Amino acid sequence: MYNEPIFLKPVFKDRIWGGTKLREEFGYDIPSKTTGECWGISAHSNGPSEVVNGPLKGKTLDQVWDEHRELFADQVGEDFPLLVKILDAKTDLSVQVHPDDSYAREVEGEAFGKTECWYVIDCEPDAELVYGHHAGSKLQFEEMVADNRWNKLLRKVAIKPGDFVYVPNGTIHAIGAGTMILETQQSSDITYRVYDYDRLDDAGNTRELHIEKSIEVAMIPHQDADFEPVLSANEDLKIEKLIKENYFTVYHWNLEGSVAAVENPSYFLVSVLEGEGELKIDDQSSSAFKKGDHFIVPSTVKKFGMSGDAKFIVSHPTI
Predict the structure, then answer these.
(1) pLDDT at residue 202, as a whole number
(2) 68 in a domain, yes or no?
């Protein structure tokens, strides 16, 4: 039986809006001064993570999913369901929207649409997000886009470190400049751009917009999702269940000491945001973890202990 966590090597993505904070904050060896995304736990074909420890070392997560489904509670489905990223927005991301599963399959031939959520790791004092819009109908939305009335159309929301934002498919959204987030999402790379501030890429070209598809999939009028975080504790582990919805359940964990037994509901996706410590299994094996690590606790590990001083974002599929 596989009896250890699966540590993963991140994949980095250069983005027009990216910066260098992934290196400065987490010590990652980033490829450029405009590195916008760290795909920490990914089995997506556009950037699968590689296992860096144990008997599966050298395999990519999509290979492990295909060959060892017992590590994932024998979950059915052709594709690994979730993707965990850290994003460094030095400048504003484009205003965008993502489709649901049905639209993604029918129009793009992809397995999943994209519902996501964000934990704000850090941000500037005056940081904002675009979250939703003010159009009351599809016709009004189309008219405001055509007239470039972006300041009237887009809904701005102030944020601070520690905030949590749920972004179901169809939500018009954009991460603002000076913000670093951890994103838990469906394993999808489908993005429809609504507006990109008329900025130019390195070749002097504007980036492609997807106005027609955006209008087809957008939630009009906008409605905020209704959810309530739940607090609990297990010895020295403080647990905040940030959200439980159809695709994922996401937690913020704060470890200040030790916990003897954490029950594993299926398989945990774990990203270490701060600190360091040790994960213990059956009092026989232990694995050190530190800030910036990403790992999976497979379903073959029914429970585990932890010690140290660290903060995490943890998730699992809602099955």
Answers:
(1) 79
(2) yes
Residue 56 identity = L
Is 173 annotated to bind a ligand? Reply is yes
- pLDDT value of residue 22: 98
Q: What is the CATH number of the domain that holds 259?
A: 2.60.120.10
Question: Same domain, yes or no, for 194 and 234?
Answer: no
Classify burial at 75, counting beta carbons within 10 Å of its beta carbon; exposed 0-12, middle 13-18, buried 19 or more. middle
Q: Judge whether residue 319 has pLDDT over 80.
A: no
Pairing label, strands 116-123, 164-167: antiparallel
Q: How many domains does one find in the chain?
A: 2
The 10 Å Cβ neighbour count of residue 276 is 14
pLDDT tens by residue, 101-158: 999 999 999 999 999 999 999 999 999 999 999 999 999 999 999 999 999 999 999 9
41: CB partners within 8 A, 6+ apart: 8, 49, 61, 82, 83, 84, 269, 271, 294, 296
Q: How far apart (Å, rounded) are the C-alpha atoms in residues 255 and 237?
A: 5
Active-site residue list: 193
The span from the first CA to the last CA of the chain, in angstroms, equals: 22
Q: Which amino acid is at 87?
A: L
Q: Does the annotation flag 143 for ligand binding?
A: no
